[in-house]
Amino acid sequence: MPSKPDGPDRLANPDAAEPPGPAARLEPSREDVEDARPQPLDDDDRAPEALRDLVRRRSAARARRHWATADALRAEIEAAGWKPLDRGTHTSLRRAVAPDRIADGLVRYGTSAAVPSRLADPPTAAWTVAIAAGSDPEALARLLAGLRRHAPAGTQVVVAADDPSREMDERLRPGAPDLAPIAGLALEVVRTSVPIGAAGARNAALRRAVGELVVLADPSVRPTGDAFAPLAAALADPAVALAGPFGLASTDLRHFAPAAGPEAVAIEGCWLAFRRSDYAGLGPLDERFLEAAYLDAWWSAVLRVGATGTGPEPPPLRRSVVVPLPLERDPGPGVTLAAQAARSARRQFYRLLDRLRDRPDLAVTPATGSTPP
What we know:
CATH architecture of the largest domain: Alpha-Beta Complex
Helix content: 25-40%
Strand order of the largest sheet: 3-4-7-6-5-8-14-10-15
Number of helices: 11
CATH class of the largest domain: Alpha Beta
Oligomer: single chain
Structural class: alpha/beta
Radius of gyration: 21 Å
Shape: globular
Number of domains: 2
Strand content: 15-25%
Order of helices and strands: HHHEEEEEHEHEHEEHEEEEEHHEEHH
Number of strands: 16
């Protein structure tokens, strides 16, 4: 019986897609650990016949090592709210959608898709700052304090608390000091009832965005001055898809380094600005990115490539530009740069490779910030 390669179904040649980093014993990913635990398998009996047919077709594709087909079928199953659980040659189904809950008068959503979306409404603000709260309440408080001092009037701030700890939950309750208004507006907090991961938490916040422009932020940075006007100026150019202060460069789209600018392959996700309309048209973020590593590079590529269109020629690539900004940042590399030495993020890396495949034109030279010849 042919076995599945070490990585996602889509990798027909897993050896060619080995992520960079020192040779070391691979740590199991969160998905590996979940799939290794005993799971209730009786959901098969309650799954619609159409879904069970998808499972049978996916099992046949895996047996024939047709990984691209198997990965596409898995995506269909997950989009329907179920998760395939592989046990050797047998695959069962588990419901992947957790219920919403109301506790202490606060709604906790089971999925990002359950968060009421405002993306179809006309924008009512210049900026939305969408924040994944993370696990450090003090770091989040420092970011919110920086926004309170420096965000332009009318800026909307949305905080996504992904299955928050008790301490984080208390800090984000109505009336708490950390929730003092920012830029003249009340903060909005979106809570989840179960962990939905890095991309899921960001999607939850982005669904509430009403700003024409959006900054994805995380608590590792905080503004010390106007970190918005230079981004708005950059995004006024329709050829620019995204902008931010911390760029990534790569000549081979496998190994990343800080970008000198002004051009970059990607912008790091700790302070990444783009148009709300692009998120509405090209999103959401791929929620298989359970951790933040490589998610910023993936989303940058999505934004730069844009809509595929229907003509014979693909649309020209849009730009990703580095814009110096007054920001204070925690020491150490960003999550994507750090992940290159931590091969436990290999699943994230494979998903990035899938997006960058056949797009060498996305590459940017680190030292010069220019596209390689």
